[in-house]
Structure formats: C-alpha cells, structure tokens
Structures
1.
Amino acid sequence: MKYVTIAVEDYLYLFYQRVGQNAGGLSAEKVMADALFKLAGELSCNAIYKQNNKGNTR
C-alpha cells in the first residue's frame, strides 16, 4: 500500500471532519479517501463511455 500526504486548508479538513462525524464517527482522512476513490471511479466511467462512443454521431 502506498501512503500519500496532502495539504488541505483548515476549513476543508474541518468540513470532512464534520461529514465523518455525521456519518457515524468516520475520520476526516477516511471521508477524504472515500471521496477521492468515488471520484476516480466516476472519472474512469466517463472516460470509458467517451472512448466507447467515439465516432458515434447520431
């Protein structure tokens, strides 16, 4: 497993911390990791969709 360190503004960390608290006590780091994972999945799906529909002009 690779570990990545990112710098975020205090207000952004507080936002994710509060989201985690409201989600049952998740850490801010877990919420951020989940959000990034979900975004990566959505971007991958969009890229696959665009590639599969390349050249389709209806």
2.
Amino acid sequence: MQSIPQEYIFSTYVTSNANPNEFFVEFFLDEPGGNLPIKVTRNFDELMDFLDSFA
C-alpha cells in the first residue's frame, strides 16, 4: 500500500439538485489554517479520479 504524503480531512454534503448522482466532497489539509478546501469533487467519477491520483 502506498502512503499518502499529506493527511486530509473531508466533508460531504448534498443539495436539492435534479441529478441524483451529484454530491460534493471537500478535502482540506489537516494542518492549522487549513480552512479552505484544496479539492472539491462533485460526482463519483471526480472522487475516484482524485483518489486514484494517489495510487
């Protein structure tokens, strides 16, 4: 297993959208002052692409 060089905190939320496949996952750096998301994914494909970038 490859280790990720940085630890992340994430939050998820859904909105009242007509597309049931759309959702948001925000990734934040796990460090002081890490209050702005460094990556926002809006659907499953974007989320998988982001996670695959660490593989």
